[in-house]
Structure formats: structure tokens, C-alpha cells
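Fill-in record for Arginine--tRNA ligase.
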Amino acid sequence: MKIKSELSKIIESALINADINAEEIVISDATKPEFGDYQYNGVMKLAKQLKKNPREIATQVLAEIDTTGMISKVEVAGPGFINIWLNNEWLSEQTIAILDDTRVGVGQVEKAQKVVVDYSGPNMAKQMHVGHLRSSIIGDTLSTLLEFLGEEVIRQNHIGDWGTQFGMLIAYLEEQNTDGNTQELKDLEQFYKDAKVRFDESEDFANKAREYVVKIQGGDEHCLTLWQSFINASLGHCEDVYKKLNVNLTREDVRAESFYNDQLPQVIETLKEKGISRVSDGAECVFLEGSDVPIIIQKGDGGYLYATTDLAALNFRDKELNADRICYVVDARQAQHFKQVFSIAKQAGMVKDEVALEHIGFGTMMGQGGKPFKTREGGTPKLVDLLEEAVVRAKDAIKDRDVRSEEELDAVAKAIGIGAVKYADLSISRESNYIFNWDKMLSFEGNTSLYMQYAYARIQSILRKHNAEVTGSIIVADEVEHRLALMLLKFEDTLTKAAIEATPHTITSYLYDVVTVFMKFYELNPILRDDIDEATRNSRLQLATLTAAVIEKGLSILGIEVVEKI
């Protein structure tokens, strides 16, 4: 239900009837319950244009607002704000209408855009570490959200699989296992370290590694076979992590650096032809307006850089994938790089002017004390180890709460542990750094995944105790029921805002508000007590059922599972 859109139409009609022209009508959530459910704050701007007293204009508009349907009451507040309260009967009708809707009242876009979301981007030389967490889950949440809203999403996992280090790695792989068997690659970290030791210690090995780089680039069949063996093993490790994380990236979503290798000469040629690049100190460079520091796109020895590959990828996503919007979910520290690459791509016509290019930047996950997240030994923790520890800690947190089989306990611990890690990350404004804290993320209180899962499980417990079909209407009869019904109907507006702004924390904040209001509702409005009449009981059961549906759908968009019992 797009409530703000409907209210905008009502305000627009009132302005027309008041003979006032407004370019844009923006409806905001009220900051406090006593200010209504929503506010129209556009009168101040209109007052400047019309050179009139804002309260006078607000009173004039208020007199034209229709209060016979959706709106129950309006009032002028402050210097000229219009506070709006929604009608309880209207809320009742709208909530009951979406009870059996699998989309819980959320519509789809009228015209789907083709959106490319570039995320995760693991290094093929090492196992995924905690530094890959944020890109993987933010990117996947954004992709799932956009798909749910009806957009056509193309996931892209831009992996680094090309470059000088791979000559070293395949030379060492050949030494260890000439038949290309990947058994030796179980521990990628150790394999890389051992290969580097050989490279540093043996000049013959180092020369062979350098030769293999040339052979890979030249298409040598033997070297490419070894290279592919290494890439397959690396991707296998990534897929194990994606499965644990409930991230929807597959082998088909991989678009590696090597994919664009043949396109790099054309990138250079295009930039030369359009007069965008020029030679400086032997290298092909682009000098953007306002900067004296060049962006090198081809080194003097003919080698290419990240910017070259990123330009080729942008050109491919525009020309071949026909994207309308291209989102890069990459560390905020790369902001300058993407700003430059986007500018060059638009100047060179590699991307059409109307295509939206977005760097979805994010901050860093920190350890206690605000320092980089490290193991006790000082290294960067492997992501798979972090996730396994999350499940162990979750199991310990819930093992005494209910009698269940070991199999059930394991399944619930997995949902809670993985959910806790993901939710703790997604609930933070993505541009902010945050401190990783086990106790906080596995708490039954506060804005945590476990708090959401517990609320869902509590509702399921209520429904099991009722043990009968729930029928009848939803009757919004008091303030807390009004607030809960209104929150549930805000789901579509919330998801739309999160999709436009690429802000998963918009969804987590909304879910926290929903659960907080529901807990208040549960406290003040008994559901199964014997002295409650049937119509009231059924109404409250329906509200609880709808609340559970919204929680489940919201968490599923975040890639988090609900549990029936905790």
C-alpha cells in the first residue's frame, strides 16, 4: 500500500480546489503521535512563492481536504504544517484486504528497469575473509529487494582472476600436482603463502611464474588448464560461504576480469579516438577536469589497470546487458575511483547519459576498541570461521530455552546465528563503520535479528494455542491498534525508499518499529484471555497474523530465516 502516494493525491486535489499551484507534494511521517500519522510541510515553500502568511494558506488548503474516506482528521500546526490522521475504518479495510496476500500489500513497479548489481568480488588467491561480508550481504539484499519490487536484476560477481600473481600460483600448482587435481587447494591461504615463498627463494621458479603469465595471456592450453583448476577451487570455497550466508550468487553470476581481457584494447582505442586520453610519461592517461593527477589506463609497458577493466565492464553492461541502472556495492574507500571511472565512461559514450551509475559505498567492520577486526593471532579472520562461530554461539544462547531434538536445535541455531551476523551489519547505515559485538547481536532485546525472530515465534505460539481457524474482520479500536495497523501498511513505502536509496537499514529500522509496536499491542490488548469476546479476539489474532507475515517477508528480503519456536 503506497499510503504517501495516496495522501499526495488528496493534498494535490485540495490545493487545486484552493486555486494553489504546487510543483511537488511531499508527505512525511509525523515525528510524534500527537502530530498525527503524517504531515504535509510544503506550505512554507508555497508561502514564499505566494507571499502570504503560511498559516493562512494551510487553513485554506485544510478546508478543501476530503475527510470522508482515508483521512479522519487534519489540523494546522506550528507555522503552517498540516497534520494528518488516518481513519480507523480505512485502516481496518486495508489490513484485512492484504491478510491473504503473499506480498503483504506490496505492489510491483509499473515499468521494470534492468538493474545490474555488482557485489562480493572475492579474491581468487585467498579464501573469503570478513572484509568480504558487507559487500556480499548488502549487495544480495539490494538485489533481492529490487527483484521483489519487480525490477529485472542481473547479479554480477566481478572476481579478480587475471594478473601476475596467477603465474606464480599455477606454476606452484604444477609443481605440487601436475594432473591439475585441486586437492592441494583445500587451504588457499597456505597454498598462496607457500607459492610466495617459492617465488621469493627461487629465481628459476620466479622466471617460470613470469613466463606462465605471458602464456596464460597468450592462450596456452596447458597453463589455462592449470589456471582454470585454481579458479574452480577458489570459486568452490566462495560457494560454500555463500550457501552458509544464504547469499544468492552462483557460478553463472561470475564476470571475472579475464572476461573483459579481449575488450581492453578497444577501451584504449575509444578513449584515444575521442581525445579523452593522452600519453604522459610513457603511459596512456586521462586527465579529468579539476584534477592534476592522471588516471592511468595503460602503463608504458602495455599493461592495463583496474580502471581499464572497469571501463570495459561498464561498456559491456550498457551495450550488451542494456542496463538502466548499474550499482557497485564496494568499500566506501573506492569512492574516488568510481567517480572517475563513471565520468570517463559517460564522456566516452561507453554508457548512455540516462543510465544511472551508483557506487553503493559502505564502511568497515571493526573489532573491539574501534580497531580493524583481527584474529587473536593478528590475521584477518576467514569468513567461514566467523559464520561457524556465530552458529555455535547461537546454539549456546538458546539450548536451555525449549525442549527439542538435536537436529531441531542445530537448524534453529543456524537461522539465529547467521541471521544475527547479517542483521547486525544491515541494521547499520551502510556508510558507517561499526564495531562487531557478539553479545549485542545475539541479544533478545533491541534492534537485533533475534528480537525479530523471537517476536515471530511468539506469534506462532499464540496461533498454535488458539488452534482454530481465524476469521472475521480487523477492528482498529484504540491507539495501539491504530499504530500497529498503520505500521503494517507502511511496508511498501519502506521498501520503495530502501530500493531507491540502497539502504538496507531502512528495512531493519522499520521491522524494529513494527515489532516494538506489536509488543506494546500484545501487552495492552490480550488476545487469548477468556473474557475477550470472539470478534475482538479474532481481530487481534488477524493483526498478529499480519504482523508475522510482514516480519517474515522483511527478514526474507534481508536473507534471514524465521523460526517457529525459540
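KEY FINDING: The chain has a mean pLDDT of 92.
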